[in-house]
Amino acid sequence: MCSGNFAKCLGITLIPLAIIAILCNILLFFPGGVxxxxxxxxxxxxxxxxGLVGSGLLMIFPALVFLGLKNNDCxxxxxxxxxxxxxxMFTSIIFAAVGLVGAGYSFIVSxxxxxxxxxxxxxxxxxxxxxxxxxxxxxxxxxxxxxKPNGIVTWHLTLFSMLLIVGLVQVVLCAFQVINGLFGAxxxDCxxxxAES
Length: 197
Prior knowledge:
With about 200 residues, the protein is an all-alpha fold.
């Protein structure tokens, strides 16, 4: 497969993943699916914007660059037919690195949030983090400590798990593009890009 076509496939895959990450992060601002009374009722990690910025907006730029690589005009750069395509593949490595940083950030924030657990109302009316160091993950009976909002533990786990998986997949895809970009920069696009006019 040509390095440009492979990059385009990666870009097509990254767009829906970025949209999923953005939606998950937005939903985290509605604990248990209902509007929060105060911002202090929302889990702190939602405000770190791992899904919105890291796996979302920072991933849109690499995805768009990858999508456009196949259509890059690579003829006539410095008198060398493949110079433009090689340079485009080289610059895609920089955008892939930006994607790696964003997805890595989202992955780390999600892992921390899952380990910490959700912020919720306890029976005494206080809003706090009742769990410590992931102990609630293996003991579902502890979930009853969170009285409100209803289903907050499941909500928290589902959304942050989705962000964790999306971030991991994006890290892998961007790492593939770094390798693909190096290959394309060194060897050029195997399909050839200059059509006879």
